[in-house]
């Protein structure tokens, strides 16, 4: 029942947001791109928070103080499609490199485009290269951007190999890389055969930025392994801290 209600609420939310979309288009036609951009960012964040709330998902964010000024490349691990809602709700406004299948979803895809999403066809090498070049242009223009370096969802706790292309766009011009650990999103749907939504708790840990300007060749070659190791460690640390918080909370209740 929760899943059906969530989909109904999502569709109604997006339909109600259509007048806002038209207003944004009018602002862009007038050349007021700054106001249009701020409106898009506000609406997308509100949408992401609403979708998580409708699903009964709570998000715990750690390390918010580690976010530097734009432009920065955020590189999270990728457990689930719900990662997109988490990062858009709790990270600074960002464009995102998304699989081409998302570009065909009615109502949602246009909002993603207005926010600066770039869609990638993983089966088309030439288009993939062009997409990464477009990401580099976004960063060079002063925008934050998100790339999931695994390239696809893990659908579970495992974290796959990090592809080098995700890091080249930052290394080429020396943009900071911010590793982000996301843990728990797969439990919302993927762990339930991908069909049913269950409430859950997600922990997102933002790690200190890695400066890439003047990084030597050896460090560049191992940057993917380094970031993956940092995310794995952050995931384990955040899980332990969360478990300890639960134990302390239960002990306080018992004392009362």
Topology summary:
Blueprint: H1 2-16, H2 18-29, H3 33-54, E1 57-62, E2 73-76, H4 82-90, E3 95-99, H5 108-115, E4 118-120, H6 125-140, E5 145-146, H7 165-171, E6 177-183, E7 200-206, H8 217-221, H9 223-255
Provide tags for this entry.
single chain, 256 residues, alpha/beta, Glycerol-3-phosphate (1)-acyltransferase, 7-stranded mixed beta sheet, 7 strands, 13% strand
Characterization of the model:
The protein has nine helices and seven strands. By secondary structure, the chain is an alpha/beta fold. The protein has a single domain (57-243), classed as 3-Layer(aba) Sandwich (Glycerol-3-phosphate (1)-acyltransferase), CATH 3.40.1130.10. The protein has a seven-stranded mixed beta sheet with strand order 1-7-6-2-5-3-4, with helices on both faces. Helix 5 (108-115) links the parallel strand 3 and strand 4. The protein is globular and about 60 Å long. The two termini are 36 Å apart. The model has no long low-confidence stretch (mean pLDDT 91).
């Amino acid at each position: 029942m929760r899943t059906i209600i969530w989909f109904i609420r999502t569709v109604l939310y997006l339909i109600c947001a259509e007048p806002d979309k038209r207003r944004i288009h009018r602002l862009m036609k007038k050349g007021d791109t700054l106001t249009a951009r701020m409106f898009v960012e506000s609406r997308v964040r509100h949408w992401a928070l609403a979708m998580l709330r409708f699903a009964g998902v709570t998000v715990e964010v750690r390390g918010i103080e580690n976010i530097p000024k734009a432009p920065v490349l955020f590189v999270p691990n990728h457990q689930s499609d719900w990662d997109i809602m988490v990062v858009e709700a709790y990270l600074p406004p960002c464009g995102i490199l998304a699989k081409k299948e998302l570009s065909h979803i009615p109502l949602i895809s246009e909002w993603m485009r207005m926010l600066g999403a770039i869609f990638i066809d993983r089966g088309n090498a030439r288009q993939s290269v062009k997409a990464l070049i477009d990401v580099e242009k976004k960063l060079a223009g002063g925008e934050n951007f998100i790339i999931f370096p695994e390239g696809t969802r893990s659908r579970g706790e495992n974290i796959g190999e990090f592809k080098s292309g995700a890091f080249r766009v930052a290394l080429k011009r020396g943009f900071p890389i911010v590793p982000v650990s996301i843990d728990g999103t797969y439990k919302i749907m993927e762990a339930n055969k991908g069909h049913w939504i269950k409430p859950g708790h997600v922990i997102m840990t933002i790690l200190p930025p890695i400066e890439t300007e003047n990084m030597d060749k050896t460090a560049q070659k191992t940057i993917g392994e380094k970031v993956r190791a940092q995310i794995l460690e952050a995931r384990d640390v955040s899980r332990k801290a969360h478990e300890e918080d639960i134990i302390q909370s239960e002990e306080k209740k018992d004392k009362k």
